[in-house]
Amino acid sequence: MDKARPKKVAIFGGGCAGVSAAFELTRPERNGEFEVTLYQMGWRLGGKGASGRDAATGRIEEHGLHLWMGFYENAFRFMRDCYAELDRPAGHPLRTWDEAFVPDNYVGVTEKLGDSQWANWAAFFPPSAGLPGDPLSGQNPFSVSGYLAHCMRLLHTLMLSVQDRGHEPPNIKDTGVTQAASQLVTSLLSCATKDTLGTARRAVKYGQLAVGTLILEAINTLQTLLGALRPGQNAAATQSLLDPLAITIRRFLENMVITDPETRRIWEVIDVVLAIVRGVLREGVLFSPRGFDLLDKYDWREWLLSHGAAQATIDSAFIRGSYDLLFAFEEGDVNLPSLAAGQAIRGAMRMFFTYRGALFWKMQAGMGDVVFAPAYEVLKRRGVKFEFFHRLEKLGLSADKSHVETATVTVQAEVKEGADYDPLVPVKGLPCWPALPQYDQLKYGTQLGKKRWNPEEPDDDRSVSIKTLKVTEDFDFAMLAVGYGAVPGISEELIAAEPAWQRMVDSVQTVATQAFQVWLDENVDDLGWQHPPINISGYVEPFDTWADMRQLIEKEDWPTDPKAIAYFCSVLPDTQCGEGADAAVRDGAINFLNRDVAHFWPDAVTNEGFRWELLSGAEGTGEARFESQFWTANTSPTERYVLSLPGTLDQRISPLDNRFDNFTVAGDWTGCGHMAGCVEAAVMSGLLAASALSGTPHLSHIIGYDHP
Amino acid sequence: MTQSKERLRRADPDRTQPYRSMMHAFGKGEAGGPPGGHPLGIGGAVSAGQSYADRAVQEASDLVDRHIRTGAAKTEQIDNSFQGMSWLSTLAQSQDLAGLMTQATKAYSEITTMWVELAATIRDHLANTRAPAQTDGAQNAAPAGETPVLRLRASCMVEARVDMLRPGTPERATQLAPEEADQTGSNLAARLEDGHLVVTVPAGQTPGRYNGLLLDGSGGPVGVIMAEVFADDGSAA
Amino acid sequence: MNVQAFDTVTPVLEEYGSLTRAAMDAYLPKWEPRAYLYDPIADYPARGGKMMRPSICIATAAAFGAPPERAVKAAVSIEMLHNALLIHDDIEDESEERRGAATLHVKHGTALALNAGDALAMMSMRPLFDTARSIAPNLAMGLFQDFERMGRESAEGQAMELGWRADPTVRVTRNDYLEMVLKKTCWLAGIFPTRLGAMLGLSNNGVIAPDAFIRFGFFFGAAFQIHDDVMNLQERDAYGKEMCGDLWEAKRTLMLIDLAEQFGDADTARLQKFLAQTRETREETDVLWLLDVMHETGALDRAINFAKALAQAAVAEFDQAFASVPASRDKTFIRDLTTWTFQRGH
Known about the structure:
The complex is a heterotrimer. Chain A is an alpha+beta fold. Chain A is built from 20 helices and 25 strands. In chain A, a hairpin with a 2-residue loop joins strand 21 and strand 22 (about 610). The longest helix of chain A is centred in the middle third of the chain and has 23 residues, at about 235-255. In chain C, strands 1-2 form a two-stranded antiparallel ribbon. In chain C, helix 3 (about 50-65) packs antiparallel against helix 16 (about 330-345), helix 4 (about 70-95) runs antiparallel to helix 9 (about 175-200) and helix 12 (about 255-260) crosses helix 15 (about 300-320). Chain C is globular. Classes of the chains: A alpha+beta, B alpha+beta, C mainly alpha.
């Protein structure tokens, strides 16, 4: 009787983490073991990934720029399973996952050449075998040799991208050398006892080659290292192969690259790789049970510098871009770049070396439409209960501090006649989330609609009632899956009870972000952009990242279609996060268009500044036309982006942690194995949280969790 | 009577941290990687035909690679005895900058690649052959092993040498076999005596190159012995 | 049925095919002894054919910046040697029909056919000599070395297959089969024509890597051969002994190898008996049985999938082998030729 009753799970927060956890816990194979209720502030799922459709134009309004990377194995598997189960009918505007996500092989960085000169560097990353989310059968890209094969391909790719100035380089395969070398070593060391004479023959034969000598020396140095396996010691001997090699290659390269800025970029990449290899060896990462975590106490750039990377490399676009991508600036101050080195390497390895299909995948509608609407539909169908307009305020512990006993929730609005809130609206046949609540379904809806009530606003204090959810009555298990910014306030009792929680809130930090979107009546090629549609990072503040989103035009519903859509985003300094944040973002955007965008679109700017008449759907003249466009200051606690600061990552609480025995956490801020703010980390945390409550998925099925 | 519901507790997790060790990743290798498909059976089934073709194509690829290697040797049209290394010779000749860059990068990446590959192989191998803990002073010793003094017993002209592969104490030597499998000469005797390596070349031994191994206590190779026997007139075979 | 919007293959085949035929004519003597030598020699070339090999050669040269004329004699050489080997193959395989007419030895007797084949093989050197005269000596040497290699590989491949026929008990694996195809088919059909073409290229100064095009030619040729073998079993318009000639001959195709690996004892015994018989004594029930199990066990489907996968691999190898040359009609032709076979059921 009692055993058969479903276990009630309350998930607080419907972003990637909470939704993917709900998806796992309600898989049909579990036969209804879990009964999930998802409590969501406001009118839509998605968290930082929520998007909305403007009522008049159907235009998509995002929190920022969301690109899915080809290494998002867990996230793509979630989406693929979700679309498969949804089984949309033929003719649906986004019927299958591969219609919703489209590969994008171009990535760019902007590089500072002189005081006021910038150059765009577009690289083509060759399509890679398989698709993200494919089962990992024979060609497992996550083995070390898989990484190395990709590593070589990357270097070739970068070389060729410069040589061909962005044209598609050929598909480079692993050459025979690596294979031959490993064969040699295998035969030397593993099979030696079986076929000693043959081994000797081979050893001598290879030994005659120059590379053979290097191999022998490598064996020697490694032997030394292995003989005295205490990290930090004997570094000099360890370096005996690498240092002369590095010095030779560097001297060789430096003599010629100075003359050619294009090849210098390649040198920078090589320099980074060199520094990583040397650093990894020096710090004993190869033999440490902590893997790259060992390096998380250092800042990425400082660590590279300390292992011999050139200052020029540290300042290069290649490295700056990695900070931009992760908004890795303390307090949102671009003068305080800060990124844990271990996670930076892990992220770079997964990003460049394990992507499948393409480096980037672009969503073909808003993230809400592509990810959260299908997820909502599937979960609804499975019987997940959604409580919209429910904001979690506090988690209360039992007297003995052993478990979560209560959850206090503010009900922000009530649905008319106790009906379920129906959150989606169709835009050109596609179920989408509106940019504002559907007031007509709410009690006092007319009134709320008039003042365009926004329950996501941090200072919104509308409260219809306060609910106290109780353990065993309303939930058996609770999952905290809100954005990190709200965690300390909600978890006061947990923090007081548990030092580990205290340490986490003492160390983990977040940053506000800003973004704006413009719709243009001319396409960017006609405005002077000379590359393929691109996602580009590393440009000047306040908006360092631009993505060409022209693929969305057909999904929006304008009376007259615009010809271009561009998204810009960046961190927002804490100093600008107060009352005037919204105006600051708008002014920053206007300045950016007047002053900086000419670098991308030379013909969009005249001596008087930006040609404001280019903006679609705008009224009036001059800067005032910008009022019609979209911008956002993501300053509320749950909107803030979690940072991967040095020395803080090991303080994060894991979803697996069982300090409070009916409780788990989910979010890209948890100790989820990939500690960077992104969709993949959030989904991984959701899987871990589901695993914590149910034992499945097995941890080895969470791709990239057990990653060095 | 109302039945009070039992409070449910989570099972204690096996672990709360990921496995981060690089060696753990090495251990996975290609074959033993993460299991495919979903634990709950959803997603990711591969049709049998597909994986058959993948595997078969991989085998076909290996086959043609072998063909390239052996064919090159047979045809004698290629000076370089090892295909993949050809960049070493072209590196020196190449004139154009971009080409040089490519070659240099390739050289670099390939060597580092080998390096890391080696780490795994060697670790596996040494797991059971690791020498007893070294004293602090040993760290300053030369990394190479102790090379035994070579003694030749021969009535004809012979050049011989020993290359140590790694540190370790050689405990026995294998016979030296002709370098080419089709070479007719019989094996040469070699043995270790009081730290001396004695190689005996009988009269009338077929000229040519002979190679053998120095093995440590566990049978792992620590060095290579090479001897070249010349004909009476001093010419090589 | 795949329909291609733009046929990038046929026009090139036709153009380079007729170019080759015209040039070949000059190398086929018109003097005596005609009836017993030169007429039989000219017989197969006159019967048409897709002219795939010479077209690949010319197109590769063109892709590497050479005018087609520069490579046409080399192409003639390839086509002549191909025809010479066909004469010999037909004798060795005891085939009765070639390109819709009686085989040469059926028409003229084995002795005359053998002699004609020998002569044609030797004569195929002539256009190669003429080509060599027009290029640098070190490049010329490369042509001949490759010619020798190709001839040797082809003979070795043919020997492998004939050997299996001579000894029906020998177990043949998929890799044995692929090695045989690599030698017998791929060198002449793909590797040699591309290498020769590239050696006559201008943009690369005729320089090619020692192992250039071998991987491409292999995947291309193997896909082609397996597809050919599959098509042989699918000829629905022929009956009796004309149907499924490969099965009547007990040719060790991929499908037969696949079956042999799956068979239990009873079936293996039946297959062994069948293999040990001569073509004349084999029975139709056995042939139909083999055909049925090939369908039932999926051996045929697996072979088709494998051929497609090989063709994909060929395209990937193509990308690499031709990475250094700019896009051109000729480059496109070679790329599309790799999958063309499958699209048209040729």
